[in-house]
């Protein structure tokens, strides 16, 4: 008889590097490990929403490559951002047509940052698409997203590994970070310096939550990929998949979660 362990999966943000989450999910699914609750920030929230709505990880990769999300963004005439995200709302609706958390096949929590109150907010009920947009709204790059007269930006600003919505409701929590920084011996321009500093800040609030995870998967060296490096999608997916296979080989106890719940998506 199958046990009914509740498995939570927390997914970090990281732009295109978040495609690694799909590789991680595929590797877990290939070993009969199916999380039955997810949470995510930014790219992790988007990957989680598509998965929770019933799309297979490999199918989501094809959707990302085919649509090239970034080409839909348009300039903003604003002091708060250089691009508007509103146009991508219809793109999300194409693949998540029932725009509400309650319609998902697996429960999902999405982290976003309330920019005026300076606090993280977790969305898990009601309309889904606007919170997804808010969670992935990079400050300075995009205009903040308005929801109920409040303004939100990227969830990763304050919480890039939102384990809190899973804590207390799951028997096991698997955390996944897609921003591992390799040692860098040649930081020779301002762009590299800024990118590395931002990732270090994001990772600090990831690692502060690492101890809340029963398992923590972090594919190596993903920070070498740019936030918008969509042409590397397949390589990033493969990195997530292969890193998870290695993790499972080195941490056999995670296999105790296999077949612990009925597969939730078809």
UniProtKB/TrEMBL annotation:
Record-level GO BP terms: lipid catabolic process
Annotated catalytic residues: 42 (nucleophile), 154 (proton acceptor)
Keyword set, alphabetical order: Hydrolase, Lipid degradation, Lipid metabolism
GO MF annotation terms: hydrolase activity
Pfam families referenced in this protein's UniProt entry, alphabetically: Patatin
Source organism superkingdom: Bacteria
Presence of keyword Lipid metabolism: yes
Domain PNPLA, chain residue ranges per copy: 9-167
InterPro entries: Acyl_Trfase/lysoPLipase, NTE, PNPLA_dom
Name by which UniProt lists this protein: PNPLA domain-containing protein
Protein source organism: Indibacter alkaliphilus (strain CCUG 57479 / KCTC 22604 / LW1)
């Amino acid at each position: 008889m199958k046990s009914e362990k509740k498995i939570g999966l927390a997914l970090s943000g990281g732009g295109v590097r978040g495609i690694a989450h799909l590789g991680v999910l595929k590797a877990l699914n290939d070993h009969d490990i199916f999380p039955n609750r997810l949470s995510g920030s930014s790219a992790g929230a988007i990957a989680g929403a598509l998965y929770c709505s019933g799309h297979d990880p490999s199918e989501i990769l094809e959707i990302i490559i085919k649509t090239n999300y970034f080409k839909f963004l348009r300039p903003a005439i604003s002091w708060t951002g250089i691009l508007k995200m509103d146009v991508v709302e219809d793109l999300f609706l194409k693949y998540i047509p029932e725009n509400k958390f309650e319609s998902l096949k697996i429960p999902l929590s999405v982290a976003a940052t309330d920019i005026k109150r300076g606090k993280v907010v977790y969305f898990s009920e009601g309309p889904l698409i606007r919170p997804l947009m808010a969670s992935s709204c990079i400050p300075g790059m995009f205009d903040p997203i308005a929801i109920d007269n409040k303004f939100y930006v990227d969830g990763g600003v304050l919480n890039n590994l939102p384990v809190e919505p899973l804590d207390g409701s799951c028997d096991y929590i698997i955390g996944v970070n897609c921003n591992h920084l390799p040692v860098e011996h040649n930081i020779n321009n301002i762009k590299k310096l800024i990118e590395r500093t931002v990732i270090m800040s994001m990772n600090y609030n990831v690692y502060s939550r690492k101890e809340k995870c029963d398992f923590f998967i972090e594919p190596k060296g993903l920070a070498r990929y740019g936030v918008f490096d969509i042409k590397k999608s397949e390589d990033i997916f493969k990195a997530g998949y292969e890193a998870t296979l290695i993790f499972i080989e080195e941490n056999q106890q995670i296999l105790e979660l296999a077949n612990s719940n009925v597969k939730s998506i078809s």
